[in-house]
Design goal:
This is Carbonic anhydrase, family 3. There is one protein chain. The chain has one domain: UDP N-Acetylglucosamine Acyltransferase, domain 1 (3 Solenoid). 14% of the residues lie in helices and 36% in strands. It contains 1 helix and 20 strands. The relative contact order is 0.12.
Length: 182
């Protein structure tokens, strides 16, 4: 078993094909990493009181924290953390019990809280705070604390979202190749 992976109550993270996990990251419990996902240094992800699912070609950068909210009588499903395909989670971002769509960039140091829903094709600026239950509509840049819709994404930004994910897939492949040569 990968040293960064830990079981919780008998559940160990599930890895699909071509996943990269840095040895300094810690992933605990009910976590699923889809094909070509990359987890970078010092990421902490706990799927202990609910589950975490990260989509294909997504990347979670250095120092990010991923967690969930437990199920309660008032909230029988709790808040799992669901991250779509082609998502870039910036350095030191914190995601807690939210749902992130496809082709999203979460800027460095951003905080996304319980029940927030980030639709597809969104950029969240560095240092932004997405309050609990907030919905960020598709096709916009959001910035601030609390986050506010700044403007529609331009064509270059829309093109950049899958390109960012592709860049991390290539980098992840280089890291995997290097580790095979050690």
């Amino acid at each position: 078993m990968h040293s960064a992976l830990r079981s919780y109550k008998g559940i160990t993270p599930t890895l699909h094909e071509n996943v990269y996990i840095d040895s300094s990251a810690v992933l605990i419990g009910d976590i699923e990493l889809n094909t070509d996902t990359s987890i970078w240094p010092l990421v902490a992800a706990r799927g202990d009181v609910n589950h975490i699912k990260i989509g294909a070609r997504s990347n979670v950068q250095d120092g990010a924290v991923l967690h969930v909210t437990r199920k309660t009588p008032d909230n029988p499903t709790g808040h799992p953390l669901i991250i779509g395909d082609d998502v870039t989670i910036g350095h030191k971002a914190m995601l807690h019990g939210c749902h992130v769509g496809h082709r999203v960039l979460v800027g460095m140091g951003a905080i996304l809280l319980d029940g927030a829903i980030i639709e597809d094709d969104v950029i969240i600026g560095a240092g932004s705070l997405v309050p609990p239950g907030k919905v960020l509509k598709s096709g916009f840049l959001y910035i601030g604390s609390p986050v506010k819709q700044a403007r529609p994404l331009n064509d270059n930004e829309r093109t950049f979202l899958p390109t960012s994910a592709d860049n991390y897939v290539r980098l992840k492949n280089e890291y995997l190749a290097e580790s095979e040569n050690l």
